[in-house]
Sequence to fold (389 residues):
Amino acid sequence: MKQSEQVRLLESCLKHIEDKTTQHVDEEYFSPVYKYHDKEWFDKEIEAVFRSKPSYVAHTSELADENGFITYDLYGTPIIVSHVAPGEYKAFVNVCRHRGAQLEEKESGSKSRFMCPYHGWTYGCDGKLKGVPFAEGFPTLKKEDNNLRELPLWERDGFIFVSATGSKDFDFDKFWRPIADDISAMKTADMQVYHPVSKDWKANWKLVSGGGLESYHFKVTHKKTIAPYFFNNVSICERLSPHFRLVLPRQSIMDLIGTDKSEWRLRDHSHIVYNVFPNMSLLVQEDHIAMLIMKPKGPELVEISFKMLIPNDLIDTKDLAHWNRNHSITEATLAEDFALGEMIQRGIKSNANEYLRFGLFEGALGQLEDLINESVDDYEAVQKIRIPE
Fold:
């Protein structure tokens, strides 16, 4: 992030602290509760938001080995992401072209060949069909027409994104451009994943995503963990369409008053949250990044994967206890949010409310809802064009 941008954000935070104010939008937003439990609406979100758009699936450090691979359930489509050559990655549907068996069952590893466990058809890590036992039994088979089904994949700054149903012609540069400079400056490609953990939570995915877009809850929800280090309901949230950036100033920001602005560093005095639409959040801290990956499994069920990204040149310079301590603190803090999400989900099903109310300082929640609605509308419009009545 440019120094001028860091100064602007820090000055805005200091101004709110001095004036005892917080960032506001123009009006409240009312979100109908059916969108948090209705199966029909959930199915629309999955198709329009998650399957047709680029979703984060892996960091390149997880496929660092030669011929490294991971398998992943991409919202109902089983996939393999393979490290084909230095700096080159491909994604395939994890299904044999013969009789449809799942090709690879391991979650990760290193292989130059994938062999079907049913009849032994073999594919290269580049997805090409290499071998067919008793090939004479398939006189019409053309190997070049029966490679693994390839899916659109994009890699930026160490992050790998795949779309289950989208087009390779998707303008990923336009999608990434609003956050490209910020992410590139953090040198995320030169980091490695540390201590990934996953857990299912009984809550709609939007409840989880929304927790990272406002600071109104901090003083109450996180009073036993991180709240004392931050200000009450002070944050700067900006839409970097279709993504969001939230700046949460820490108490130490007051030390900047009267100092040389050319030396101000945003990460030293705040937490920065990047909500990368639709399924990844990056919590940028002073010397590392906490990653959250959302995988909706149902209207009221979401899998959350949490992993840390640590710079390659730092991971061995600090004691292991340092990284484990940070991991534990972040995991405990996130669990407070997710437990509240489960509580809200139960409240939604009670029929006490027809709408969820988002206040003026929760504006990003309404903007996220609008973004989802627009995605569903656009998707349905395209489907009508593709499928004539």
Notes: The helical segments are 3-19, 39-51, 172-185, 205-210, 218-221, 320-349, 363-386. The chain is about 30% helix and 30% strand. The first strand starts at residue 29 and ends at 32.
